[in-house]
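Appendix C reproduces, verbatim, an entry submitted by the partner laboratory led by Prof. M.T., so that reviewers can inspect both the input and the predicted structure.
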Amino acid sequence: MELLKKYNKRGSWYTDYPPLGLWEQKVSDEEYKTALTEFSVSSGDKPVFLYIHYPFCPKQCYYCMCFSEVSRSHKKSQEFLNHNGREVDMLNKLFEKNSFKPNIRKIHYGGGSPSWLNQEEFDILDEQVSRLADKSNLEEIAIEVDPRTVTPEMMRHYHEKGINRISFGVQDFDPEVQKAINRIQPYEMVERLMSPEMRKLFNRGFNFDIIYGMPKQTVESFRKTIQQCIELSPDRLGVCILGWRPDIFKHQQKINESDLPNFEESTEMQLESMEMLLAAGYERIGIDHYAKPDEDLAVTKRQDKLHRSAMGYNPGDCVDMIGLGPSAMNRMQNYYFQKEYNIRRYNELVDAGKFPVFRGYKLNKDEQIRRDIMEKIICYDRIDFDEIEKRYGINFKEHFEYELNSFGELIQDGIIELSDRELTVTPTGTLFHRHVCTVFDELLRKGKGYKHARDSA
């Protein structure tokens, strides 16, 4: 507990490096086209991940840090679909010009609440995606589902359209917590959507998102939520702390700060949930994820293929990502891009025939090396110096002389161990991945500092 207090300071979680808040704004459509063209020429048959961000939710959850707009208007859904279809056509036109067909192997529908789309609207979205991706070639199609906006009938329709993984936004099962965050969804509502029939339909599994540190939560109530999760037996769980930034997310001001658990209580929730999930047979996947031993994340971690990005942990088969829709993330080799947050501005750019990019970043070689090192820390708890030297043609000790001389305190606190050819994160240190990554953050050391991604969005 004392170490957790000592290192309890705001900073990046390094889901991407450089962090999103440091990407350059006012990136042009031409720069995005250049990146897509380079990707077309050099990526060959590499598997690609396609992400579609549907930005609307019928109701505001007070804890939320995702980009969304509250609307129950299906007219706005139609506007989204119209512009998404145009963006798909723009991509196809550019790829055809370069005689390239992306090898899309996985698709994720995120948001917002994509499960708010009705059957007719979802079929339009499915048809648009089919123009870009060969659905017969897909390994996985996942969708984020708000249990309040979906029925078993719609779940069956998802299956008919090829969806084989469901991600539920559970957050917490306690009625008082749900009331405090404006998200009432009883345990029975989720249980009904995970019947034996549904488990057979979605053979890639079910994911749960769980949050601790939320209003009205107690150690005891969160213990019960985790036990209920174990009873429902999802294949993966993300167990993350509440991102409390009411200065940025104005709807979070509807949460009474006095209702939030204190640091000690939140930490106890984190540690106890870890113990409970491990005892139930789940394996810990990095910072904040858990998976069953036969699930893809656990299997690929044992095979040294695991990867982490802004979309969380993945099996490492689709590192490059193309994103569609407002705020969607893109990662193509040494390029990052994010689409416009502002829906009006997003639509205007698409209507003008331009890719609606808001910000981006092109990594130099050193930044690519540092990104790789941080992924090794977050996924595998170690850095093999020989592996990095062979991959990038550097002398690790010379290249990172400053960093290797900066680990004194982390070594003294038992967070890492440093040998002649390897850095290892200790079992205790697995609670401090981002603090180890910070040592390799040269941009931070040079004064760029930590900046929240939405500070200027």
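The longest strand covers residues 103-111. Additional entries are available on request from the coordinating office.
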